[in-house]
Amino acid sequence: MLCLPGQINLQIPPNVIQGTGSVVTVAKDGTVSRGPANIGNIAPAIFTRKGDGTGAPAATASKNGQVFDILVANNDGTPVALDAGNYVSLFGTGFRFLSGPATITLGGTNIIPLFVGPQGQFAGLDQINFQIPLSLAGKGDADLVITLDAKTSNLVKMKIK
To answer: Predicted confidence band at 1 (pLDDT cuts at 50, 70, 90)?
Structure first.
């Protein structure tokens, strides 16, 4: 769990029953806050450089699919231009328990991901990997969303050379 002014990050245990519930927090001074929570297996959210769910994704890219050392976002949250054919690893949450096919839509083109699941190093962090189709060369600005079990993520921005 992480608590900051105006933000609480927590991981829901996998054995929690799905449905509507509530989250209750108690501050050091005893102040109690409550809020609704809709618990489900899939709730795809792509992390972004700005940290607010908008702009370029918190992601890395690779020319060969092996070494992911190309940043996908500038410090201000705008997208870095990537080559068509690059591999991309997006990070987020709410991906790992999908029961059906996953789709990435980038610049209006549907892409089947190469991998969807737990990132493997950090609790609750999920990842989805894909290759930018060569058909998107020269596209420029491109919107990206992922769809898992008929649920769609937040829209993020990418740029294709």
So the answer is: low
